[in-house]
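2024-03-11 09:14:02 DEBUG pipeline.ingest accepted 1 chain
2024-03-11 09:14:02 DEBUG pipeline.ingest length=325
2024-03-11 09:14:03 DEBUG pipeline.predict start
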Amino acid sequence: MNYRRLGKGPLTVSEISFGTWLTVGASVERTTAIVCIHAAVDLGINLFDTANMYGGGEAERVLGEALRSSGRSRDQYLIATKVFNPVGDESDRGLSAAQIAKQLDRSLERLGVDYIDLYQCHRYDKETPLEETLEALDRAVHSGKVRSIGLSEWPVEKIYTAAELMAARGWTPMTSSQPQYSLLWRKPEAAVFAACREHGLGNIVYGPLAQGVLTGKYKPGVPPPPHSRAANPETNFTMETLGRKFRSDFLLAAVEQLHPIAGDLGLTMPQLALAWVLRRPEVSSAIVGASRPEQIAASVAAVGVTLPEEALALIDAVLESVVLR
């Protein structure tokens, strides 16, 4: 495993991180989820990403249990969680000072830890003054309950505004951004990466395998494989709501053309997709999920892979008609 510093903050993170969205505490059985988390630890992954809302809070509970039973001390792994969305059937949400204080304590309790390494604002809150949110996050850091703070999918202008406010008020700066980023979804390249470079934020990207499409498991005109995300009615909605139709035949036909490129390089499709994401210096870590331990090992094999310029040009050529920038 290789490690990169997360922005200008205090954390050094593994290039591959383990995510719990839609799997841990949800579609993956508890014992299997714990086995996967233990496998991730054994493979050198030190960053584990979750959110208070995932599984109605269950993802945090299972993640905490798994990490405590992993045989590693608390200082050997990093927990990243998020706040903004409602948890379970609760109606309250947002980034008010009161909400941050309440949800932070609840996350700490579910995780079974004394502090969270990276506390992220899951989305931007239009209903709460930004100053209130940033000051509350600064208090969370100074309380010792949080080591570092970040954001996920904020409008780029709000990234700039937040950075400027924090610097002017002497508040703890953000150190991370969590955007969607993959071979098929390149929108952060337009402005988000530049904002993060300017203000010292590292990017922990989610969806690097495009909901599994870039593994090559889905074929145009063919039903999804049994037990895949697309075949599960509880998880397949995400393949149609993250900004595009990830199972459209025209898109899958383009992805099919990546197979020979990966094969010529001696790589699997996931390794090709992850190596492509990790080639960017703005990316500190790529989040992968798993329903089986061997999936994690396959993802970790992408670490250290350098894609030649010829391969990058071929990739761009075959995907040009389906890439979103």
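2024-03-11 09:14:41 DEBUG pipeline.report Residues 21 and 27 are 9 Å apart (CA to CA).
2024-03-11 09:14:41 DEBUG pipeline.predict end
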